[in-house]
Design goal:
This protein is mainly alpha-helical and 497 residues long. It contains 19 helices and 4 strands. A two-stranded parallel sheet has the order 1-4. A hairpin with a 2-residue loop joins strand 2 (60-64) and strand 3. 50% of the residues are buried.
């Protein structure tokens, strides 16, 4: 299946890769046929479900005689530059960090960074609609989402969960299927968030459970619901190159730099709390970076594996997420981060391949960066509640001011956190399976097993060496694409079959 018209690509092996003459209308134009109606729905619902925060988007203008006077609102977190810097850090993680991280594949670089970009643009809008609808279902009152910088930051958190899920099905889905993922997942994540944060009173400042673990297991369940098996995909399509891994490493560095802001962006009214969140995250993510490198060497007989370094170095930011506001000693944050780096790197080296043999598909191995560290972060928070009563209160209400607000004991809060872990797994996996089943229906264009992890079916690319199905790639043995510095891309496009 392809997205372009016949004869658009100079020198393309038509018999091998151009199937537009046999593709139906839905296969060729499925993306716009799905996207435009849903986007129109977004515009309509945006008018119904959102409004400006009075302090942010509404001018106060009074008329005095023939003169109009506008009242200037003082700069606050929601209304001005006070919060924009932290929002930009969170947005940069989604757009640039995840985007570059998903350029690791040899033949799916444009798809990784391009679809990541699309997910951010669509989801930053749609999540504001989803918030209003889910809140109305939960409370029975229709209250519009008031658009301000706080809502923009929380929108980044929900979008991050979708991007994590995208990593699990990376290269296996058409753009039309991605639209369906972006449409459904925010509702399921917000439902789980309401159950965990508001009904169970288990707070998750950095999103260890409600963002990272939920996104990872939702995405893995989607792949399972779609019936995708990693063993069925040609091994050549799953290769990386020296340069694609270098691009992914740039994404890792961006995520690593901004992760403390991601965990602490919304706690602007409590300087002590936000400072502790930032510092605990900083210590944990430094420790996971330091621990991941030697662990990779240990598993690979003296050499480091780049995919493990790209991901395991970040695991400390995930695992510290739920416990980062707790009043813990600095060495505790370092220990948690170091453990995350070891577990994640070891999981990539052994556990990931074991799961694939069992039929579990996880293209970007998000379980090793987000899933398992997120669950372990919840376990760490549970035991921290047993150790100290103050930490129990941070778990019950992160911004607590009096212990009289709760009648739970430390042991009870421990149990509620464990229940929150089970709830997150149950909702993410069950809803992910249903979503995967829906994404695999005939009305939604799919990707064939032999066409997975290849850009050419959805991008107009003139580089024949970047498609393993073409005769040029077979003749050159992928030499040009494996080392794009060797021959200019123009020379590749002008080659004749």
């Amino acid at each position: 299946m392809t997205a372009g018209g016949k004869g658009r690509r100079s020198g393309v092996d038509v018999a091998a890769i151009d199937k537009d003459n046999t593709a139906g209308m839905m296969e060729t134009y499925g993306f716009p046929l799905w996207c435009y109606p849903i986007f129109i729905l977004v515009v309509v619902l945006f008018a119904v479900c959102t409004e400006w925060d009075p302090e942010f988007g509404v001018d106060t203008v009074t008329k005095v005689g023939d003169n109009h006077i506008r009242t200037v609102v003082a700069n606050t977190w929601d209304s001005g530059n006070v919060g924009y810097a932290m929002y930009m850090d969170a947005a940069a993680m989604c757009v640039l960090g995840f985007g570059m991280l998903y350029t690791f594949s040899k033949y799916y670089v444009w798809g990784g960074v391009g679809l990541n970009y699309f997910i951010c643009g669509f989801s930053f809008l749609w999540v504001n609609v989803a918030k209003t609808i889910v809140n109305a279902i939960w409370t029975g009152d229709w209250v519009k989402t008031k658009l301000n910088l706080t809502e923009m930051v929380t929108g980044c958190y929900i979008t991050a969960a979708i991007l994590i899920s995208f990593g699990a099905i990376y290269g296996f889905t058409s753009p039309a299927q991605i639209i369906l993922l972006c449409f459904i997942e925010p509702f399921m994540m917000l439902i789980n968030e309401h159950v965990v944060l508001k009904n169970m009173h288990v707070k998750d400042a950095g999103g260890s459970l409600v963002v990272h673990a939920f996104g990872a297991y939702f995405g893995i369940a989607v792949a399972f619901g779609m019936g995708v098996k990693a063993k069925q995909i040609p091994s050549e399509h799953r290769n990386t190159t020296y340069f694609s891994d270098m691009g992914a490493m740039i994404g890792t560095v961006v995520l690593w730099m901004y992760w403390p802001s991601f965990n602490g962006a919304t706690f602007y009214n409590d300087v002590t709390l936000q400072g502790r969140i930032v510092m605990n995250t900083y210590l944990a993510i430094c420790a996971s970076c330091a621990a991941a490198f030697p662990t990779s060497v240990l598993w690979h007989r003296g050499k480091m594996e780049m995919i493990e370094i790209q991901n395991a170095t970040l695991a400390g930011g995930v695992m510290i997420g739920m416990i980062c506001p707790f009043d813990i000693e600095p060495w505790t944050a370092v220990l948690i981060g170091g453990l995350a780096g070891v577990v994640s790197a070891g999981g990539y080296a052994w556990y990931h391949h074991f799961l694939e043999e069992l039929g579990v598909t996880d293209s970007a191995a998000v379980q090793m960066l987000h899933g398992i560290p997120g669950l372990l972060g919840g376990v760490c928070a549970a035991f921290a509640c047993l150790a100290d009563n103050h930490n129990y209160m941070y778990s019950y209400d992160t911004t607590w001011t009096t212990s009289a607000a709760s009648d739970r004991s430390r042991g009870e809060q421990f149990g509620w956190i464990l229940l929150a872990i089970i709830c997150t797994l149950a909702i993410s996996i069950s809803s992910g399976l249903i979503t995967g089943f829906l994404m695999n229906q005939p009305c939604c264009p799919t990707v064939g097993k032999k066409d997975m992890l290849i850009d050419h079916d959805f991008w107009d690319i003139h580089d024949l060496g970047s498609d393993p199905r073409s005769k040029v790639a077979a003749k050159d043995d992928g030499a040009v694409w494996a080392n794009p510095m060797a021959v200019p891309m123009q020379a590749v496009a002008s080659k004749k079959v």
